[in-house]
Specification:
Blueprint (H helix, E strand, L loop, with lengths): L3 H7 L3 H14 L6 H9 L5 E5 L5 H8 L3 E6 L2 H10 L4 E4 L12 E6 L12 H11 E12 L6 H11 L2 E6 L13 E7 L8
Helix pairs in contact: 3-4
């Protein structure tokens, strides 16, 4: 599975095309906010949200419109430019999850949708998980969704998340919380940084 940097290096138009795809889907009236609805439902009002690998901002932008304080971080400056232009309610920063500490910290919840984690180089996976972990407040949660066949097996991901220090609380087969089964081809994992929560 190529990293995002490799994909965009091979096709310089990829980022603009990616951003345009989501704008077109929204303009057509398609529902592209399923991930945002789940994160919103899991969060207290006015939560601090980290959109990890935010892309062009569709998820974090929707959460900001719902009243949350959102920081979106992405390695792609072109996508960040789209996010800044389209969703000024949130804050957007260029950054590599696997190479840099996340600014600020003390987030209530973090989210990585759109197969973000599978675009990270293998050698950067643990660092990316740790950087998000460190950016969460104790008891904060990280919700990660990606499909199979993208170079990072579900069990392998969960094992590494546990090794970093996360507690794996729930696993679903979709962003609308369908039951995860042995043959599921998509996983949404709810991870928690143990600490100041009722279970931690």
């Amino acid at each position: 599975m190529p990293t995002w940097k490799e994909v965009t290096a091979a096709n310089p138009a990829h980022s603009h095309n990616f951003a345009r795809k989501w704008k077109t889907l929204r303009a057509q009236g398609k529902d592209i906010d399923g991930e945002a609805r789940l994160i919103d439902a899991m969060s207290e009002r006015h939560s601090r949200v980290l959109d990890a690998g935010c892309g062009s901002g569709r998820l974090g932008g929707e959460l900001a419109k719902r009243g949350h304080t959102v920081l979106g971080v992405d390695v792609d400056p072109i996508l960040i430019e789209h996010a800044v232009n389209d969703y000024p309610e949130a804050r957007w920063e260029v950054g590599d999850l696997s190479e840099e500490e996340i600014p600020e910290g003390n987030f209530d919840i973090a989210v990585a949708a759109g197969n973000v984690m599978t675009f990270i180089a293998i050698e950067g996976r643990e660092a990316a998980l740790r950087n998000v972990f460190n950016a969460l407040r104790p008891g904060g949660r990280f919700v990660v969704g990606f499909g199979e066949g993208r170079g990072w097996g579900f069990d392998e991901f969960l094992d590494l998340a546990r090794a970093v220090g996360y507690r794996v609380d729930f696993i679903f087969a979709s962003w609308d919380m369908k039951v995860f089964k042995e043959n599921s081809t998509f996983m949404v994992a709810v991870l928690t940084r143990p600490g100041a929560d009722l279970l931690g």
